[in-house]
């Protein structure tokens, strides 16, 4: 499977470790950066990851920042991408099974290397259940507009 991976500076070390681990397990890894732990802005790398997934350059993505929150918000700005912030294998599996998530986000300051690997394993080995979840997932890519009521 081709996996895109991106982070900010806070998660650079974990990204490097996970990219190598994924490659060792036979995956084709598209490392979207950064190339060092120098300060960068997570939205830039989240947007790059989302675009790679939406363009079909990778089947799944792993997004990392200090908490996982900021980069997951950035990734989710793209309507073709469903990014779930996970912290343990069950949430990673449910993100795939119920939400057909194509990207998972992790907080490098919140999960260790072994837990990150367990989450990725669950994410990559769980299939989307379809069925009753299908119509809900379809709605995620095409929200009704306007989403917010105009201020009075």
From TrEMBL:
Keywords: Isomerase. It comes from the Bacteria. The keyword Isomerase applies. Gene3D superfamilies: Sugar-phosphate isomerase, RpiB/LacA/LacB (3.40.1400.10). GO terms for molecular function: isomerase activity. SUPFAM superfamilies: Ribose/Galactose isomerase RpiB/AlsB. InterPro entries: RpiB, RpiB_LacA_LacB, RpiB_LacA_LacB_sf. Belongs to the LacAB/RpiB family. NCBIfam families: PRK05571.1, rpiB, rpiB_lacA_lacB. This is Ribose 5-phosphate isomerase B. It comes from Sphingomonas psychrolutea.
């Amino acid at each position: 499977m081709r996996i895109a991976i991106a982070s900010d500076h806070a998660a650079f070390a974990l990204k490097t470790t996970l990219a190598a681990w994924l490659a060792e397990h036979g995956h084709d890894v598209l490392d979207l950066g950064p190339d060092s732990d120098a300060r960068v802005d997570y939205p830039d790398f989240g947007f790059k990851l989302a675009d790679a997934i939406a363009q079909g350059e990778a089947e799944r993505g792993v997004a990392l920042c200090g908490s996982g929150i900021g980069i997951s918000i950035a990734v989710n700005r793209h309507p073709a991408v469903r990014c779930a912030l996970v912290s343990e294998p069950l949430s990673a599996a449910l993100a795939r099974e119920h939400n057909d998530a194509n990207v998972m986000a992790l907080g490098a300051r919140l999960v260790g290397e072994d837990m990150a690997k367990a989450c990725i394993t669950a994410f990559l080995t769980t299939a989307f259940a379809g069925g009753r979840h299908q119509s809900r997932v379809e709605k995620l890519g095409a929200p009704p507009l306007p989403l917010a009521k105009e201020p009075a």
